[in-house]
Amino acid sequence: MRLGIPLALAAMGEAVAERSGVINIGVEGSIIAGALGGALGSIWFGVAGPGVVAGALAGASVALVFAAFAIGLGTDQIITGTAVTLGGLGITAAIYQARFGATGTALTLPTLDAGRIPVLSEIPWVGSALFAQAPTAYLAYVLAPALWYFLFRTEWGLELRAAGEDPDAAAAAGVRVRWARFWATILGGALAGVAGAHLALAHAGTFAENMSAGRGFIAIAVVVLGRWNPLLVLLAALLFGAASALQFLLQAIGWDLPYQLFLALPYLLTLAALAGWVGRAHAPASLALPWPKEEFRG
Amino acid sequence: MVARLPRRSRGPLAIGALAVVTTVVLAGVVLVLGGYDPGRAAGAMWRGAAGSPSAFFSVTLVRAVPLVLTGLAVAIAFRSGIWNIGAEGQLYAGAIAGAWVGLNVGGLPAVLAVPAVLGASAVGGALWALLPAVMRIRLGVGEVITTILMNFVGLHLASYVVRGPLQEARGVFPQTDSIAEAARLGVMVPGTRLHWGFALAVLLAAGAAFVHGRTRMGFRMHAVGASPGAARVAGRIDTGRVWTGAFLSSGAIAGVAGGVEVAGVTFALYEGLSPGWGYTAIAVALLAGLSPVGVLATGTLFGALEGGASAMQREAGVPSAWVGVVQALAILSVIALDRLRRRDEGGLLSRASGGGATPGAPPGPAASMAPPRSPPEPPARGATGG
Known about the structure:
The structure holds 2 protein chains of 2 kinds. Chain A is mainly alpha-helical. Helix content of chain A is 68%, strand content 1%. Chain A has a two-stranded antiparallel ribbon. Chain B has helices at 10-33, 38-50, 53-79, 87-103, 110-139, 143-161, 197-214, 216-226, 228-233, 239-266, 277-287, 292-316, 322-343, 348-352. Residues 1-9 and 346-386 of chain B have low confidence and may be disordered. Chain B has a domain at 63-285. Chain B starts with 9 loop residues before the first helix and ends in a 34-residue tail after the last helix. At the A-B interface, helix 4, helix 10 and helix 12 of A face helix 5, helix 6, helix 11 and helix 13 of B.
């Protein structure tokens, strides 16, 4: 389950961004920046808590670069996101190598301690997996309903979704489309940053180059599986995490089934979901379409 | 007679050149901000990438081969309006198929064994592109996410194959045995590590350039990439067929990249065969303005960057990871310049780029870096003509 938490945080942020019409493939870059930000922040302050904040800021700054190009200039979102991911992975590795040396011993960081929730963690089977976790896990549990409420029950959420479905109509109705997309993207980057900080501070206790290991791309798949709904996204991320964790269990009990194929299962499931074989998943209608369209620029 | 689109392809190429300059300047600024000596870094990089024949042939060009091939794959897809982000997975599928054949053709002469390996890798790559292609064309599911998903399935499949069915006979390391001698690509430049895969990459680039510039199929791909609706209605082009063709040939070339790496460099399949070439390929293709010949140049440039990076780290103390930042700067420069040029149609930038756009005309998508994203087609829309 621990593997699912960073996925959940990053994917919920990405879900909000995608609801506003922005697909940010640079989320991987935000995660790795968050991990390095979390590491540096926790070293600076000596405790892990401020590291999470530093991670969120680092993730948001990477998203800011993405937003400046994709929303500010209207460049293609897929290409911009690819660049931001390449750049994020590169710059974090470069900063890490410059600061700690390329071949130094692994960095030991102050860690986020697990907090046990008294009654809930006693639930058999899932109790300790879900409720004896780092504080960032509880943040994910609280954020899922909060983001759901925001998206589907508030006026701001409605405007944000309108920007992602029909930006022309939304703009005609007075919604500041690019403003909504901008903040949704920044929020997504900040959450991806928290996910990265969680990886460094609660999961690994160290920073390593490329430690995000493709989680940003997995998060994008999780958003589809969770049908762009924060509550389902949380569930999908925890399931994804559980599937990954199961491989260790299978190895531990000496089961010979190829666990790599098991690892590929969530991706195949997501493909099936996209194809409509596991219930139809509908993307926001204007996802990945820059706005305003260039024809309107004159 | 073959109809040809108006000659506008110089625009993107000029943007590419301008982007290279911008990138070099920005990279220098970043290095100075990082407290390094950009002159020393550039000198070290030059020596590492092109300072001696062995550096140029054995390092730069050897690294350029997979980048050129995957870059071609991406360029072909993007030109037709297919967002194939899946070159990485297609490369692995090609490497798996190539390695499997390579392990089993010991009895054949090289003239048969090598084509068998490369053919298998092309089929592997095309098969990997098939599901996203079908989902895009039949079900209207966007290929960006599906190709990314297939990348991970491909990685896990390779990881399984080198630990399971194709693991080396000793069963120690997660890798295959060495492929048969006959299945290996020979050395092209004696005394260096440069293999015939480079010649193949040049040949494929020339072939792609010919198809794009001189054939009906190339024209159709261009037209469909520029405007699927217009291509279907006015040009009576079967967009589904063109997309399928572009998607599968893109996958096949990415697959060949994997096969060539196995047959020319590693002689075995490893888990981490590709350090992300399939993603870097996007930068290679864009910087080349999606031109196949341009891909040869940018692929070699990126090969030099990656080849020179270790020398830069050794001699100037600049972490090799900066190369990733430079690649990102390159993509961002291209797309920003492209946007600014189109916004400023008829102004300074478009004149500098040599584009023949008339002011007031709608920006020609054919000249743009990024083919416009058409919303996915609904599954069945009556007769498509053609």
